[in-house]
Amino acid sequence: MKILALPLVAILLLISLSPVAADEIKVKTSGGTQKIGSEGSGDLAYYSLSALNEIMGGRLGWNRAGYSVQFDLNGNRFGFVVGSPYVNLNDTVYNIILPARVLRGELFIPAGTFTPILNLACPENVTWDGGGATLRIDSEWYNVTDVTIAAKQNGVLIEIFMPSPLKFEIYESEGNWLNIDFPGGRINRGKILSAINTRHVRKINAFQFDSSAQVSFRLRRNYKKFHHSYKTDPGRLQIAIEDARFNPDSAISNLNRIGPDEKIDVIVIDAGHGGKDYGAIGRHKKTREKDINLEIAKNLAKMIRKDKQFKVIMTRSKDKYVSLDDRARIANEAKADLFISIHCNSSPKQSANGFQVFYLAPAKNDAARAAAQLENAPFLLDNAAVDKQEEGDLAFILNDMIQTEFITESADLAYMADIEMRKRLKIRPRGVDHAGFFVLNSVYMPSILVEAAFISNKNEEKKLRDKKYRKKVAESIYETVKRFKAKYERI
Ligand SMILES: [Zn+2]
Predict the structure, then answer these.
(1) Ligand 1 centroid – CA 341 distance (Å)
(2) Which residues have C-beta within 8 Å of that of residue 285, sequence separation ≥ 6?
(3) Rounded Cα–Cα distance for residues 118 and 95 (Å)
(4) Does 481 reside within a domain?
(5) From CA 421, how far away is CA 296, in angstroms rounded?
(6) Predicted local confidence at residue 208, as pLDDT
(7) What is the pLDDT of residues 437-450, one digit of tens each?
(8) What's the average model confidence in pLDDT over 409-413?
């Protein structure tokens, strides 16, 4: 406590110099209400810039001579001059009618006229309510919240995020400008302007008007065509600008293309095991996993084929042996968009039960590892040279993590499948897990492995033998495919 070291006279002097009951205004943010120093009221209300800065997290500095203040906030710079009714924001001068004043050693700014200018520099919506002496900093106010700009192999994809669908109008204008008007739009200007990606877009403009908003992109060069569509989950307007001459560097050349090739329409259905590889065997009725897998796969293929927007490829449509390598090759050569492997689980523990969905990632727990080992068994048959030591932790399977590129999508696909199966199957959901399945590891697309139930469990073996149950599994996966398409398909 430094102050105790001061002589008593100095302490008394400090107390007598401090202001007597200064005015206060309220600052309302999502985090609650705080009070900051103010002066005057109504149209003449001023607030303390340094107190506001404490709340907003900017940087404030006086010049050496003590007549001007620089205020940095969210990458914007304000300049004030004591006694002047002008404020400079990023080299544009605004008239705030009343002069900036120094009171009690702090800079005070007129609330009514400065707040709209402050708002230009904030990702939140900042408004001043003179009657209630309240400054509101509202981050939930926007209906156009963000923009991303991503390079694709043959162009650029601009996404404008809006939590719910909003009317919009897109038009081009002189100088490679692409403009989007949002009647009723309330845009998060700060966030949108910071999305600038100068390699593809020279400039972004964002204007908030009273009853509409506009976002404009000045593209690096002329472009031939663009398509747009609204996507959900999260809600966003996608604008795909096709231009082969964008010619991105090799670092991003492996990114997905936009345009017709980006359709999610080729689905590979992989019935696990087959031929000499029986998979697991039911304990009570000697049901063969390979047969159940094929039945479900055929059921699913029939459903998806009826839906004309998809094309289905099966890694096997009869009882024959297909190596894991071949399954992956079939999917990769077809340039499939999704890979769905269908299996039944098995455990030495008779009571083990439930359905489960896996996607590829390093196995994180013993159960996932055991499931992976079971399903990878044919790989071991195919590659007798594999070191038994490595087999234990599946290191050999995970050497080649081609699939890592799709882990996010695969995980999402797995969670969607889990949700759909929970809706339809009356058995225990074991949740989503990840494991090192070889067949998933070597396909170049989002992929999951579904364990429809435990064939080693008496009750569930019975279910797996039931046509109605198998149909429900197929329905769940079909629904999953449709949901995934709706979420991920580019235009
Ligand atoms: Zn299996």
Answers:
(1) 9
(2) 461, 462, 465
(3) 13
(4) yes
(5) 14
(6) 79
(7) 555 556 677 888 99
(8) 84
CA of 374 to the centre of ligand 1 (A): 7
Cα gap 283→281, rounded to integer Å: 6
Res 198: pLDDT: 65
Instruction: Using the 3D structure, point to which of 120, 138, 156 is the last residue of a domain.
Output: 138
Q: What is the count of structural domains for the chain? A: 3
For residues 372 and 390, what is the distance between their CA atoms, to the nearest angstrom?
A: 14
Print the domain residue range for 213.
Answer: 146-258
Do 173 and 62 reside in the same domain of the chain?
no
Residue 220, phi-psi category: left (phi > 0), alpha (psi -120 to 50), beta (remainder):
alpha
Least confident range from 104-118, 329-343, 357-371, 413-427: namely 357-371
405 and 297 in a common domain: yes
210 lies in the same domain as 274? no
pTM of the model: 0.46
Regarding whether 56 and 167 lie in a shared domain, the answer is no
> What does the pLDDT look like over 25-46, one tens digit per residue?
999 987 889 999 999 888 889 9
Radius of gyration of the chain (CA): 31
- Pick the last residue of a domain from 106, 138, 170: 138
In this structure, the strands spanning 338-345 and 266-271 are: parallel
CATH number of the domain to which 449 belongs: 3.40.630.40
The answer on 252 and 274 residing in a single domain is: no
How many A from CA of 452 to the centre of ligand 1?
10
Within a domain: residue 13?
Answer: no
Q: How far is the CA of 486 from the centre of ligand 1 (A)?
A: 29
- Mean residue pLDDT across the chain: 79
Around 377, how many Cα atoms within 13 Å sit in the side-chain half-sphere?
12
Query: Residue 173: which CATH number?
Result: 2.60.40.3500
Neighbours of ion ligand 1 (CB under 5 A): 272, 279, 343, 375
State the distance from the centre of ligand 1 to the C-alpha of 308, rounded, in angstroms.
Answer: 29
Per the listing, tokens 């919009």 go with 168
Q: Are the CB atoms for 324 and 382 separated by under 8 Å?
A: yes
CB 39 within 8 A of CB 103: yes
- Cα–ligand 1 centroid distance for 311 (angstroms): 24
